[in-house]
Amino acid sequence: MKKTIKKSREVDLAVAAPPSKSYTHRALIAGALGKGRTVVQNPLDAEDTRLTLAALRTLGVQADRETDRITLEGCDGLLPAVDETRIDLDNSGTSLRLLTSLALLCRHPVTLTGSPRMQERPIGPLAAALPAIGGKVEFLKKDGYPPLRVSGHLTGGLVIIDGSISSQFISSILIAAPYAESEIVVRIPAPPASASYLDITLDVMSTFGARIERTGYERFAVSPHDHYRGRTYAVEGDYSSASYFFALAAICGGKVTVKNLSPQSVQGDRRFPEALQAMGCTVTRGTDSVTVEKSGDLRGIDFDMATSPDTVQTLCMVAAVATTPTTITGISHLKFKESDRINGTADRLRALGSDVTVGDDRITIRPARLHGGTIDPANDHRTAMSFAVLGCGIGGIMIENAECVDKSFPGFWEELGRAIP
Q1: What are 303's strand-pairing partners?
Q2: DSSP 187-209
Q3: Which CATH superfamily is domain 21-232 in?
Q4: Among 235, 253, 178, which residue's Cα sits nearest to residue 211?
Q5: Residue 368: predicted pLDDT
Q6: What tens digit of pLDDT does each residue of 161-186 get?
Q7: 3-18+237-419 shares its CATH topology with 21-232
Q8: Residue 286: which of 268, 254, 264 has the closest Cα?
Q9: Which of 1, 78, 292, 305 is placed for a possible disulfide with 249 were both Cys, Cβ 3.0 to 4.6 Å?
Q10: Helix then strand then coil, % of the chain, to nearest 5
Q11: Annotated catalytic residue: which of 310, 340, 360, 376?
């Protein structure tokens, strides 16, 4: 499917943020492991979250989906799979990484695999850490990459893990840790990538009844005595998905209000409106909404996005229409995402006339005259959505493989169509 994006006039729009993908993944896992019934209200229904739900069912968890909820019968920490299991997580890195440690709560080995791109995304640091807490990992093709076969039993103990590529390696161990035989202590020797996602993991764990003691992002101790308890859990709105509509106001001019956003959220991408405010937009926060309004020129900024990885590309699009240069830092780990989001974004912007340079941990975008073109997002949902928003500002953009947005935001094109008639 292809989508042609025409230049838009100023916008005046109010939309509701879709449910958070990150919270949905974690709530499904905690509910599956917990004791008793969990009802996850307002879960995100997208390709990635469907893969997590299907994997939990494959591991023996009973789960029923209705229009606005998923009901899970928890297994109390012992996944009921009756034989060795193989799970294909396609292109969902979150699913594969979080479920890798959960495999140690099965009686039988679990093989985790995925798409060709998934088999290029490293999982070595997580695999290297698991033996310290009772796991055994075999790589079935290339060392350090899926597919991998996980066996063993979650015994507990001290585990040191490198989270510089992805904090999901750490989240994987943490979310399984309440069911270890003894306390698990996780030590992180260097600052992890996307640390804010650890806050999401800990938020869900605590809400479901786990007890964690932490020292910043350096040490976490998880009690083996405080297990998850079934509950009704409502998934909050997603700041990552909201960013596309905030950027729409910044790029096209006008005003956008996004509802269903918690002002107390620990999501790292809640910082995105701060970046737009620094660039000259007006930002107003309500009790459950954020409004972004732009009336004048945008100025470039220097901004560290280490805790807001999923909105880096969106900010690049805004930077491309600013009047002065923008440098975004804290982004080195983005080359390990669904695509290489650093060099891929730079190459695509250059093809549209932008002046872009890339360093090890930064991207700089300077003012230039932009023009239309065709964007192949390489099956990366965030590439497709961010360049679609830029297209609303400059016109003449065609997005190929537009259906890839279903990975995280199945209703994106419909929402954008309402915003840009």
Answers
A1: 328
A2: E-SSPPTTTHHHHHHHHHHHHTT
A3: Enolpyruvate transferase domain (3.65.10.10)
A4: 178
A5: 95
A6: 998 888 999 999 999 999 999 999 99
A7: yes
A8: 264
A9: 292
A10: 35, 25, 40
A11: 310
